[in-house]
Structures are given as structure tokens and as C-alpha cells.
Design goal:
The complex is a heterodimer of chains A (500) and B (472). Chain A is mainly alpha-helical. Chain A is 75% helix and 3% strand. A two-stranded antiparallel sheet of chain A has the order 1-2. In chain A, helix 12 packs parallel to helix 18. In chain B, helix 5 runs parallel beside helix 11. Chain B is built from 20 helices and 2 strands. Helix content of chain B is 76%, strand content 1%. In chain B, strands 1-2 form a two-stranded antiparallel sheet. With 472 residues, chain B is mostly helical. Classes of the chains: A mainly alpha (500), B mainly alpha (472). The interface between A and B is medium-sized, with 34 and 32 residues.
């Protein structure tokens, strides 16, 4: 079996194996083994990809496979990866791997929980390997079912409301996507020949501009809902706050990146003319996302809500960077996807662990945690510093690149938008430092906290893995940048050619 | 007429024989429950023979004609009926139903015969005979539990409303005959150019059909009948009956009315938007699972219209494919609801609370069925719905598709309410574990396997696609 299909087969086999497990311990063990294999496979893919490139293979997508699925509609199971997809696959593998360990102490309906969690990840993996728009859409929607159950059953707080809201809003987004995909499909033979869903084939032709004008906003907003584009972001704070730890990690870490990834891989790549024309609308919206998310985070006192709003802000920055449509800014946007993916997973993991000990997520009820649970606290500080863009961590590299790219546009509109977006960094610093100050430093507010135990082995494993990721990207961003850059080149070339 | 020509009616004849055997057997069999395995066995043989290669051709000077596609449609209906029979076994075994057990299966089969003749009809006379043969026994079935007021009421409502709709339909047919001078489909198709009177005739005809498919605004009978009738009859009505009417409407629109395609596309546009939206909005408010599934099936009928509006080969293929998958999805959902209703008498959605904790297997089947109805992969409903929408988009109806997907999203909301009741809501006194009899088990497994396989396994669609027909 080829290396990419393994990304779907391994989780499917893991789910089947979990189905036969007899007790919670076996369930945990099988999940951990399965996801470790998945992580190894991702690393193997990374090396194989570099080896191919070194050997001089310059095709846009590597490891391609193409099997006919529905012949009469020309639907294929077509897969292949470029540098960006490889990076996203590795990210997903890391997060689901750590997510399993972060859910180690799950007690209720463990079998169902891990199956749903891994099913969710399967959808994400499938999405990133697909080159056929139909297959891609199938995988995208596969992620919906487990999402509802995961939040509804194992969530906390207003979980039923949040689960429903999230599911319905995301499905509303995919309603737009579906129409947009039809628009692409039925315009994919303007150069003659058969209608096709194949991304590479469609990229070769130019979709008529009228069709682009109609379908580009549908696709961009459709993906934008998932990427927390203002004003379609409202599912995100509620959803993340109610979801169990591992689901928040996976959702904010990877699933929201599906939005950004789809926005440039499908919407902008295939319809560059309309992207150039309509970018200004979405630049306005994303600038609002960025600042609004950051300001929203200041107002919150619940740790999960703080992080959820901060995700809205950071994911807004991803779309913002993509819409700047030059190599530098888009490179930064993809870096931001990966950096924020790991960072936010770290945060949600930590919040879950802290909540498991203190049984509260309200920052004003806690204090001085640094003295009782130093390991978790230090990890929180590292995550926080990365989030506010301190040099040496991944966040700095990504945001810096985005803003440098954005400033390459000399006109007043882009300048103003960039300045608004940049100002979010200051706001971010405020809420991060406030949380660190109140939560970790200061006096211990509650005597019960003195009994708290620091991180267990599985928690340490989760945190260390994620911190290595953040620091790795921060210290040596170049190799990742190269990986992304070569994947971006054809997209950028198409976008630049579309300027009149 | 030689025997070979006679065999063109293989499907129908076999069904008639089956029904007769069952009625005769009832006289001689002392233990009435033995009729169930007999009926199931005979019908299964029927079903299998239906799939054997068959001849195509015309009979009775063009009144009856068989094509590969009509054979496929009949097989699809056979599958649905087979599952319904399996699912009704447990209910039929109840002592109060013993004395009319054989009648139930025989009546069910005779309605199916009517539908199959209707699908194969080559003129409006045969079409109308088939339609009535299909309708009248169903009214008897709806009133099957005649000592229960609601069931009797359902029977009367069904017969009255279908009498009215038949009247409207016949009025339209008489005008068609008056303006074209023929009742044969081929001749009518040539002469039907869309003059004013013909347009009026078409509207009457379509109104009559819309009654049968329960399209909004002709749907008001459906909810009451569905709720009052025994649950197995409801599932039959909402799946097989509706499927047959959809098939013949597709055939007629694509052949007889092919010259006025632009006109009927506009009419269907309005009907589709109304049906999807109104069906959904009513389904949102339902508390009773039968009414809930009734309104959801009204909304689903709206989606089917999108496939017809494609008015090409893809359109007819997706309609048949959708009905096939809809049979599996709806019958899975109804199968679980039947078991619950038979075992505990509970039919309200909030009584399903905590169902997963006691009946995980049934809950999972219900979950898959509901997600299939909502159109979420990897279950088959996604593919069915996606392809239907593809057909509509291929004719350029992007906004209609948009309205439809928004409706699909709304429908997801109410399907999730049932999922929420089963999986998330807590209940101190959930429905006790249900022991499933062998027939229901086979029926459920068949439906559930169909639910998973027919989507991912692309050959199913390709075979149907290969038989499809469009407007020349």
C-alpha cells in the first residue's frame, strides 16, 4: 500500500481494533500504538518527501495515486502531497498523538470516545492527501459526525448547545462549499474534454470570470466558516469551551486549519482572478477577526474562552496572510497554521490538565499555581510567550513573516489593514501576560491547591512533544519555510498572473 | 401471445402468484404464524428471480413495456417491500393480528403489483389502473388495526384524499386525450407541444401526482395518515409507495412531457423549494417519531425533484439511486422505531432518552440511518444527495442547489435532536434492552448493510447510470 493511503488505513484499523478491546486499558493502549504508528508514518513521509526532492523530482505533487471511483461522474480517489500537505500531515499526526495521551484519564464510554476521536482525525488526514475535490469534500464531511458526539457526550458546560451550534454552522459552511464545488466542476471543461474534479487538471485551465465571481465567495466563505472568519466565527468560542480536551486540541489545532488550507488550495488556486478582485472584502473581514478575537480574549475570565478567542484572532491572521497574495505573506500564513496548531494544542492540553486538578477554569479563582505545579506552569508560560510572538518561538517567525509580506503592498488600504492586524499583537500580550500573572504567579488563593500533583508521565509526554515542536520551528524555521515555499510557488505564480 | 412474451410480465406475475398462494394457504394452515416464513420465503425467491437477466419488450399493443430501467426500478421496490415484510413479522405475530395475517402480506404484495404495472405502463389507461391498484389496498392496510380509532381514521383519510387526487389526475388525463387524440405515451409525446389547454392538463396531472408523492402544498394528508397507520404501513407508504410514484413521474416527465421541459422545470422549481422548506419546518416541531419521519420524508421528496429537474441521463439515474438509498436509510430508521414501538409502546422522541445505554446496537443503526437521511458521509445518503444536487447543478440550477443544501443543513438539526435524545440525554428509566426477533434482525441488517455499502461501492451507481435515460 502506498504511503499516503496508509494515513487513512492506519486510523481505520485502529478504530476496528478498539472495537474489539475489552477494557479501558486496552482501548488506551491500542489508540496510543495506532497513533504512534501514524506519527512514525508521518515522519517517514517527511523524509521520503525530502529524498524525492533531492533526487530531482520537481513534480508539484508527489506520491500521487489515481484510482477511478465513480466513473460516469469522473470522480477519482486521487491523492498526492506537496510540501504544505506534508507539513499539515505531520502536524495532524503530532496533535492526534498527543491528544490520545491528553485523554489518558478519560473514564466514561472510553471505547466510543477514542473511536470518535480517531474518526475525526481520519477525516482530517484524508482531506490533506486528496487531490480530487469530491474525495476531499467527503473526508471534510466525515469529520462532522464525530464532532457532534464528542462535544455533546463528553463535553462540559453548555455542551449540547455548543455541539449543535458548531455542527450546524460548519454544515452551513459546507453547504456553500458544495455549491462552489459544483460551480468548479461544471466549468472544468472550458478547454474541451471531460468534466473533472481533479485539482491539478482544473488548475491548468482558466475558469470563466463570471463563474469565478459567483463561486469564489462561496468557496472562500465556506472554508472561512471553518477558519473562523468574522462574522462566522461564533461557533468557535462556544465549541472549544465545551469540547473535551483532546477535541479542543484537534479542532483548534488542525480542523480550523482545514479552512485556511482549503481557502488557498481550492478557492484561491483555482479562481485567482476572482480572488484578486474580491480580496479586499475578505481583508476587511479578516482584519476584524484578528483584532476582534484578541479584544474578545481580554474580556474573558474562563481559560478555555480566552484561548478560543485567541484562536479566532490567530486563525484570522492565517486568512489575512493568505489574502495578501505574495510569497512572503502566504509563507507566513502557512507557518502560522502549523505554529498555531501546535501552540493552541499545547494550551488546550494544559487547560485540560489544570482543570482536571483545580476543577475550575475561572482565572480569578486560581493563583500561584507556579508554586504547586511547576511543570505545567512552565509549559503554560512557554506556550504564552510563543503565542504573543516572542522571538525564538514559532509564533514570532510566522507573524513576522505575515506582516513583512503584508507591508510589501504599498497602497493605503493594505497599510491600514496591516496596521490594524499588527495592533492585535499588543492586545495579545495583554491577555497572555494577565493570565500568566494571575494564574501562575501571586499568592495561592485556595488551600486545596497545595495538594495538587504535578504532571504525570502521559501528560509530560504530551507537553514535551508539543513544546519541542514550538521551539523547533522557532529556532530553525528555514527548513519548514523551504518545504512550504516550494508548495506555494505555483499558487503564488497563478495569483500574480491574475493581476490585470 | 406465446409464453416468452408472457414472461415479460415476470415481476408482476410472480407477485400475483405469491399473493394467491398466501391467501389459499391461509385456508389450510392451522397455525397462522406459519404463513410468515412462507410469505418471506416466497417473496425472497421473487426478489432473487427479479435480478436474473430479463427480456425487454412491449405487450398488449404498447400498453405494457419493459426496459432495463423499469426492471431496475421494480427490483428496487422489491427490496423495499421485502424489508418491510421482514420488519412487520414481529408485529403480525401478536395474537390480535393472527386472523388477518395473510391478508396483510397479500395486500402489501397486491399494491406492489399495481406499482409495477404502473411503472411499466405504456399508456395512460394502464398507468391509471396500476395507480389505483396500488392505492386502494394501501388504504385497507392503513386501517388495518381497525379497532383503533386513529388507524381507521388514517384509512378513511387516505382513501378520500387519494380519491380526490385521482379525480384531479383523471381530469388532466381527459384533457390530454382531448388535445392529443391518444392515450398512448408515444403518440401523446409527439402531439404534446404545450398549447394553453395542454398546459392546464399538465398542471392537473402534476397536481394529482404531487398528492401521491406528498409534495407541498398537496401534503396535508400525509402526516395524519402516517401517524395513524400501523408503523409498518407508514414505513411502506413513505418509502415504497412514494418511490413508485417518483419513478413513474420521472418516466412521464422525461418521455411524454419532454417537449415542455422548460415549463415543468419551472413548476418543479417552485414545488421543490416549497416542499423542502415546509417539510423541514414542520419536522422541526414534531415530538412523535412517526410524524417526525413523515415530515422528514416530505422534505426528502423535495430533494428528489432536484434530480428530475436535471432532465438528463444523470437526472434519472440519480433519482433511482436516491430512492434505493432512501429505502435503506428510512427503513433502518423505521425498523428501529418499529422495534421500540412494539416492545415498549413508546413513540415519542423524548422517550428515546438514554437509549444508547441500554440498546447500543440499535442506537448505532438509528444513528447511521439518520446521518444517511441528513446526507453525511461515509453513509450512502451523502452520495445519493450529492449526486441529486449534481444533476440539478448540471442544468444550471445553482441557486436551487444552494436552497437545497441549506435545507439539508436544517434537516441535520432535527435529525441530531433524535441522536441527542439517544446518545446524550440522561434518563433514569431508559427503554429496556430489546430482544430482536430473527425477521427484524435480518431486515435491519439488510437495511444497514445497504446503508453503508451502496454509497462507497461505486458499482451500484454505475449500473443504474448505465441504464438511465434522458430527454432526447
Amino acid at each position: 500500500m502506498d504511503i499516503l493511503t496508509l494515513f487513512v488505513t492506519i486510523p481505520v484499523l485502529t478504530m476496528l481494533a478498539i472495537g474489539f478491546a475489552k477494557n479501558t486499558q486496552q482501548v488506551r493502549l491500542i489508540s496510543a500504538v495506532g497513533m504512534s504508528i501514524q506519527l512514525l508514518n508521518a515522519v517517514r513521509l517527511l523524509f521520503a518527501f525530502f529524498a524525492e526532492r533531492k533526487a530531482g523530482n520537481t513534480a508539484e505533487f508527489l506520491f500521487t495515486q489515481d484510482l477511478v471511483w465513480f466513473k460516469s461522474l469522473n470522480i477519482h480517489y486521487a491523492i498526492g502531497v506537496d510540501g504544505i500537505a506534508v507539513a499539515m500531515l505531520v502536524l495532524t499526526a503530532i496533535i492526534i498523538f498527543t491528544g490520545v495521551f491528553a485523554s489518558w484519564t478519560m473514564k466514561e464510554l472510553t471505547k466510543e470516545f477514542f473511536i470518535s476521536l480517531i474518526l475525526l482525525a481520519t477525516g482530517v488526514f484524508g482531506f490533506f492527501i486528496s487531490l480530487d475535490l469530491f474525495t476531499m469534500f467527503v473526508f471534510y464531511e466525515v469529520a462532522v459526525i464525530p464532532m457532534y458526539l464528542l462535544i455533546g457526550i463528553w463535553g462540559s458546560g453548555r455542551k449540547e448547545y455548543s455541539a449543535m451550534k458548531l455542527t450546524i454552522m460548519l454544515m452551513g459552511g459546507s453547504a456553500l462549499l458544495m455549491v462552489g464545488l459544483f460551480g468548479i466542476y461544471f466549468n472544468s471543461n472550458v478547454a474541451g474534454g471531460e468534466l473533472t474534479w481533479n485539482l491539478q487538471e482544473i488548475a491548468k485551465i482558466q475558469i470563466p470570470i463570471e463563474a469565478q465571481r459567483m463561486f469564489f465567495p462561496m468557496l472562500f466563505v465556506g472554508f472561512g466558516v471553518l477558519g473562523a472568519l468574522f462574522p462566522f466565527h461564533t461557533w468557535s468560542p462556544d465549541g472549544h469551551a465545551s469540547a473535551p480536551t483532546a477535541v479542543s486540541m484537534l479542532h483548534a489545532g488542525v480542523l480550523m486549519k482545514l479552512g485556511g488550507y482549503g481557502a488557498f488550495r481550492v478557492a484561491m488556486y483555482l479562481m485567482p482572478e476572482a480572488a484578486q478582485e474580491q480580496a479586499w472584502i475578505f481583508i476587511v473581514l479578516t482584519s476584524i477577526s484578528v483584532l476582534y478575537g484578541a479584544l474578545g480574549a481580554i474580556m474573558q475570565t474562563d481559560l478555555k474562552y480566552i484561548n478560543a478567542y485567541s484562536s479566532v484572532s490567530h486563525c484570522g491572521l492565517i486568512l489575512f496572510g493568505l489574502l495578501m497574495m505574495n510569497q512572503t505573506a502566504m509563507n507566513g500564513a502557512i507557518l502560522q497554521m502549523i505554529s498555531h496548531g501546535i501552540m493552541t494544542a499545547l494550551f488546550f492540553a494544559l487547560i485540560g490538565m489544570i482543570y482536571g486538578r483545580t476543577h475550575t477554569r475561572m482565572i480569578d479563582k486560581m493563583g500561584g499555581l507556579m508554586k504547586v505545579i511547576p511543570f505545567l506552569s512552565v509549559a503554560y508560560v512557554i506556550g504564552g510567550l510563543a503565542s504573543l510572538g516572542l522571538p525564538g518561538f514559532s509564533g514570532f517567525v510566522a507573524e513576522m513573516t505575515i506582516f513583512v509580506g503584508a507591508f510589501q503592498h504599498a497602497d493605503i488600504f493594505h497599510r491600514v489593514a496591516t496596521i490594524i492586524a499588527v495592533s492585535s499583537i499588543v492586545v495579545t500580550a495583554v491577555y497572555i501576560l494577565r493570565v500568566v500573572g494571575v494564574l501562575l504567579l501571586g499568592p495561592i488563593k485556595n488551600d486545596e491547591f497545595l495538594q495538587l500533583k504535578d504532571a504525570e508521565w502521559h501528560e509530560q509526554l504530551t507537553l514535551v512533544t508539543l513544546i519541542i515542536g514550538i521551539a523547533g520551528i522557532g529556532i530553525a524555521p528555514l527548513w519548514l519555510s523551504d518545504l512550504i515555499g516550494e508548495g506555494l510557488a505555483p499558487v503564488v505564480a497563478k495569483l500574480l498572473a491574475a493581476i490585470h | 401471445m406465446n409464453i416468452e412474451q408472457f414472461l415479460l410480465m415476470r415481476h408482476e406475475l410472480l407477485l400475483v402468484i405469491t399473493a394467491l398462494i398466501l391467501i389459499v394457504a391461509e385456508i389450510f394452515v392451522a397455525d397462522k404464524t406459519k404463513i410468515i416464513p412462507l410469505g418471506v420465503g416466497l417473496f425472497f425467491v421473487n426478489l432473487v428471480i427479479g435480478f436474473l437477466p430479463a427480456q425487454t419488450g412491449t405487450l398488449f399493443g404498447g400498453m405494457f413495456h419493459n426496459t432495463d430501467m423499469t426492471i431496475m426500478m421494480k427490483n428496487v421496490l422489491n427490496i423495499g417491500t421485502f424489508i418491510v415484510i421482514l420488519q412487520s413479522a414481529a408485529w403480525l405475530k401478536k395474537p390480535e393480528n393472527h386472523d388477518k395475517l395473510a391478508e396483510f402480506i397479500a395486500l402489501l404484495i397486491s399494491t406492489l403489483v399495481g406499482m409495477q404495472f404502473m411503472i411499466s405502463s405504456g399508456d395512460f389507461l394502464m398507468f391509471y389502473i396500476g395507480l389505483e391498484t396500488a392505492t386502494i389496498p394501501v388504504a385497507a392496510l392503513a386501517a388495518f388495526e381497525r379497532i383503533r380509532n386513529r388507524s381507521a381514521e388514517a384509512g378513511v383519510k387516505l382513501i378520500l384524499s387519494s380519491a380526490l387526487s385521482s379525480g384531479v389526475l383523471l381530469y388532466g388525463l381527459s384533457m390530454i386525450y382531448g388535445t392529443t387524440g391518444s392515450i398512448y405515451f408515444d403518440a401523446v409525446a409527439l402531439a404534446f407541444t404545450g398549447t394553453q389547454l395542454q398546459t392546464l392538463a399538465f398542471i392537473y396531472f402534476l397536481a394529482g401526482m404531487a398528492f401521491k408523492i406528498s409534495l407541498v402544498p398537496f401534503h396535508l394528508w400525509a402526516a395524519d395518515v402516517y401517524e395513524g397507520a400501523p408503523i409498518n404501513v407508514t414505513s411502506y407508504l413513505s418509502v415504497v409507495s412514494k418511490g413508485a410514484a417518483v419513478f413513474i413521474l420521472t418516466i412521464l416527465l422525461f418521455t411524454v412531457f419532454s417537449k415542455i421541459v422548460a415549463m415543468w422545470q419551472n413548476v418543479l422549481y417552485t414545488l421543490a423549494v416549497l416542499t423542502m422548506t415546509v417539510g423541514n419546518l414542520f419536522a422541526l416541531r414534531q415530538k412523535n417519531i412517526k410524524r417526525f419521519l413523515a415530515f422528514s420524508s416530505i422534505a426528502q421528496a423535495g430533494f428528489i425533484l432536484l434530480g428530475m429537474m436535471g432532465a438528463n441521463e444523470l437526472g434519472s439515474a440519480t433519482v433511482v439511486y436516491f430512492v434505493l438509498i432512501y429505502i435503506f436509510s428510512n427503513l433502518s430508521a423505521f425498523g428501529v422505531a418499529t422495534l421500540i414501538s412494539n416492545n415498549s409502546g413508546k413513540e415519542n422522541i423524548d422517550e428515546y432518552n438514554g437509549f444508547y445505554s441500554t440498546n447500543p446496537g440499535l442506537s448505532l443503526i438509528m444513528l447511521l440511518a439518520l446521518f444517511s437521511l441528513a446526507g453525511i458521509p461515509p453513509v450512502a445518503g451523502f452520495f445519493a444527495k450529492f449526486f441529486l444536487f449534481t444533476a440539478a447543478a448540471s442544468a444550471g440550477y445553482y441557486w436551487l442547489v444552494f436552497i437545497a443544501v441549506i435545507n439539508a443543513t436544517i434537516s441535520l438539526f432535527y435529525y441530531l435532536l433524535v441522536v441527542k435524545a439517544m446518545f446524550i440525554n440522561k434518563n433514569d428509566n431508559p427503554i429496556a434492552p430489546i430482544t430482536i426477533d430473527i425477521y427484524s434482525k435480518v431486515g435491519l441488517i439488510l437495511a444497514a448493510v445497504g446503508l453503508v455499502v451502496t454509497g462507497l461501492w461505486s458499482d451500484v451507481f454505475e449500473v443504474i447510470r448505465g441504464l438511465s435515460f434522458g430527454i432526447n
